[in-house]
Amino acid sequence: MHLIVYLNNITYIRDIMKIGFLLGKDHKTLPLSELIALLEIYSLNGELTLLDNYGVLSHEGSIEKSELIDIVNNIVRRSAYINEGHIIIFQIEHSESLNKGLKLLTSRLLQFESKELLNLLNMDSSRDTFAIRVIKMNKRYSNENENISSMAIERIIGEIIRKKTNAKVNLKNPSKTIKIIISRDRIYVALLLEKRDKEYFNKNRPHLRAYFHPGCILPKLARGMVNLARLKENQILLDPFCGTGGFLIEGGFIGCKLIGCDIDENMINGTLLNLKSYKLENKIIDLKKINAQDVIPYLKSLGINEVDAIVTDPPYGISTSAKGSVEDIINNLGSILKNNGYMVFASFKKIYLENLKLKEIHELYIHKSLTRYIHIYKKE
Ligand SMILES: C[S@@+](CC[C@H](N)C(=O)[O-])C[C@H]1O[C@@H](n2cnc3c(N)ncnc32)[C@H](O)[C@@H]1O
């Protein structure tokens, strides 16, 4: 049973849990696509609404709140393009006037009993400290009539919550971060659950790895593509053009079993070195120097008939040399993909395959005359 009561433009939500995902702005389409893939991976269903770069999932399932929070934390930690996960406490509709919305927000906060507010924010005033952080979804509120700064909003709301809860403000290292998300026509008040480690991909840049070769995939894109392939822990990931192991590393980190091949022996040795340096060698099923044309008999020799997903970055003739028709090889890979499995690959032209269903193509602009296309195919 769900009950939504609309009163004075304030929506009270009962039995529907709302989760907010703050998506990165570094690409137009990949972050939302990755979020949809991760929601599928973790079987988290509900209605997803996108407000600029804020995805709101209204979850109506029977999952306990603590389990839901664990899932959200895992989604954010595993993602490439999802910056934060929130649990939304309440929302205010403001019919496109920020000032009106802020008035409604402050008066609503003032109406709360202290205990009720502490409960909603999951706060213990004797232990917890807090900070308010405003996220404006776009800059249109900076016009003359609506020129209230994020800092001013943080101060006003912070003061109300401090007085109501008696909890201390800690701007540097709060135990609770309360997010005020301001979008075109509504304001969400949410509790920050998890933040993606923004340093992770930086620290793992390919040239810092044990083995490096130009032309390798960047870890953030590699992680995003592995996620788009809907891989779960213990499932088999195949990269038939594995190079230095960019996809296998990210797959290994999320607990997949790995098969990689490459026509160049140095790459196979390099991939092994990289996986070892990340202590992922226990994830390897096999790595082998072969022509990807022969991947089907190769898998058979391992006693494997199909893999859960294929994620790859075939040679494109600029910094890698193509041996055999890449399109023919990729076309044939469908036969070793399990039903409902995904093949995700990057290339410098759009490639249309016969045996698999094209779900999405994302364009990555490199420079004026070079665009990379991320293809998502599914075996249906
Ligand atoms: C773009 S690179 C892959 C980069 C890789 N994703 C990484 O992170 O390092 C393409 C790779 O395909 C390999 N290759 C080229 N032709 C091949 C073939 N016919 N069979 C298998 N591998 C091939 C090249 O040796 C090269 O390592």
Task: Work out the strand percent.
Answer: 25-35%
Low-confidence stretches: 1-14, 318-323
Quaternary structure of the protein? single chain
Shape: elongated
Mean pLDDT across the residues is 91
Query: How do the helices and strands follow one another from N- to C-terminus?
Result: EEEHEEHEHHEHEEEHHEHEHEHEHEEE
**Which small-molecule ligands are present, each listed once?**
S-adenosylmethionine
Main sheet overview = 10 strands, mixed
Distance between the termini: 35 Å
The CATH architecture of the largest domain can be named as 2-Layer Sandwich
Query: Might you state the CATH topology name of the largest domain?
Result: VC0802-like
Number of strands: 17
CATH class of the largest domain: Alpha Beta
Structural class: alpha/beta
Number of domains: 2
Helix percentage range? 25-40%
Taking all Cα atoms into account, the compactness measure Rg is 24 Å
The total of helices stands at: 11
